[in-house]
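Lecture notes, continued. The same structure-token format from the folding unit now serves as the input rather than the output. Read the line below as a description of shape only.
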């Protein structure tokens, strides 16, 4: 039997984060900047990123990223979009 590991995806609107959380922590700013850069590259405002991508780009611990994304989800600026194989 073979198992497929799924990647968690989060969709964030960086402009909404900036409007709702102008005084971000350094770690929040780091995650926010990654989403901004990806949004520019992908030409979109609602930016999707996987957890492995966020871990690689920020260098932060997974728990810290999850806490940030949950804060953003609570203000309506981030949404967990499911998982990809």
């Amino acid at each position: 039997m073979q198992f497929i590991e799924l990647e968690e995806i989060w969709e964030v609107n960086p402009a909404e984060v900036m409007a709702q959380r102008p005084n971000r922590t350094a770690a929040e700013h780091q995650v926010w900047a990654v989403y901004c850069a990806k949004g520019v590259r992908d030409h979109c405002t609602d930016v999707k990123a996987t957890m492995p991508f966020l871990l690689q780009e920020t260098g932060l611990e997974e728990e810290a990223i999850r806490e940030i994304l949950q804060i953003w989800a609570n203000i309506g600026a981030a949404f967990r979009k499911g998982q990809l194989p």
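Point for the exam: The longest helix spans residues 26-42.
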